[in-house]
Amino acid sequence: MAGVPREQWTSKRGFVLAAIGSAVGLGNMWRFSYLAAENGGAAFVFLYLLATLVVGLPVLLAELVLGRGSQKSPIQALAHYGGQRWKPLGLLFVVTGLLILSYYAVIAGWAVRYGLAAITSGFDPDAAAHFAEVASGADAFAFHVVFMALTIFVVVGGVSRGIERTSMVLMPLLFALVVGLALYAATLSGASAGYAYYLAPDFSKLLSLNVLKDATGQAFFSLSLGMGALLTFASYLGRDVNLPRAAGIIAGADIAIAFIAGLVVFPLIFALDLSADVGASTVGALFITLPKAFAEMGGVGRGIGILFFAALIVGALTSAISLLEVVVSSAIDNFGWSRRRAGILLGIAITALGAPSAWNTDILGAVDQIANNILLLGGGLALSIFVGWVMAGPIEEVSAGTSGASWFGSWRNLLRYAVPLFLSFVLIYDAIPSTFETILALF
Ligand code: TRP
Fold first, then answer.
1. Which atom from ligand 1 is nearest to the alpha carbon of 28?
2. Residue 222: CB within 6 Å of ligand 1?
3. Atom 7 (ligand 1): residue with closest C-alpha?
4. Cα 282 to Cα 261: distance, rounded to the nearest angstrom
5. Is the CB of residue 25 below 6 angstroms from any atom belonging to ligand 1?
6. Fewer CB within 10 Å of terminal CB in the chain, N or C?
7. Is 151 near ligand 1, meaning CB less than 6 Å away?
8. pLDDT digits (tens, 9 = 90+) for 39-69
9. What integer pLDDT is reported at residue 1 of this predicted model?
10. CATH of domain 12-441
């Protein structure tokens, strides 16, 4: 490609923090806790850990290898190693990114609204009615626009001056907020009941295919896998970076934050005896039950609530950045657009695409289901087959920057056999039928 050298991260640490920023987001707090509440607490947590380690981690490493090896965004990266016929898969990744960001920013917009309202007027005690009022319609769309504008601003700033600098500041802040909140939650009187629900497994759910599907979808969503987000971030890396080590750190941080977020959410819910509300869990759980808890806790609750929503917004922003970056870097690489033009035009397009989700939370939930249980899992399946069977020299690429290890061969075998088998199983036997049900339920 002409003239302009590819952007690079300034430091390895900057890359790792940006990648953790991508992984840690609404998925860890909003999605993880509502799925755990719905699926029997610890049984879900256990299957999610299993899915992250056995399926997520190998695919994460595959994305890093593809990105760093090709030094390209997804469409060109796939063409680089697989030829023209793999380009459509890259295009599917970009479309998935557009789709996920379109509703993700609506939820992040709710968080912005709750955070600002907490500062100016506190939490509404009738939390369910309040949520019903603000979760959809013109208000929801307005905050969606605000959040998208922030995301566009950072991405237009560039890889090292926009994304890296933002992550260097925000990720340590997020970590401190979540740990601080968990320590506070431990002092609440109902904390132990919360921990018990969260951490004592309901073994009957351990064998449920449905829980396994949700856990696998969650592992992919939470690690930002299956649509080339970490692939794109890795395309700005040099060959001196140890990719397996980076993958371990990213996955470890993602699991840790999800786990600690659970240590915040469940004690709060049980301290105020709101567990019945969580049983009726939907996409809104976090935005109904927790604000109700904060409202009942008075002045302290307001302060804690502000910190909680601050953490949520920070996590959402660094994740949204990575989603937009996939789309923007693809437009730069494929159409030769400037970063500024790509960021603004595509950002506006995604904002418009989010309108249906902002208008109706059932649509939002349906798009979330489809994106996760089909597009991300399907994307992960294709990625593992690609790196396992098609790409030449994945072992050399994964070895660059390391002193070599005998398990690299096992990694490739996982991608060839175990991961595709497992993902096909989850996709065919559960995710696809349940997604049809979700779509049908809309009518
Ligand atoms: N992982 C993020 C979260 O947990 C969301 C996210 C960012 C994402 N980039 C992604 C999900 C790419 C899937 C694919 O909130």
1. 4
2. yes
3. 319
4. 18
5. yes
6. C
7. no
8. 878 888 999 999 999 999 999 999 999 999 9
9. 46
10. 1.20.1740
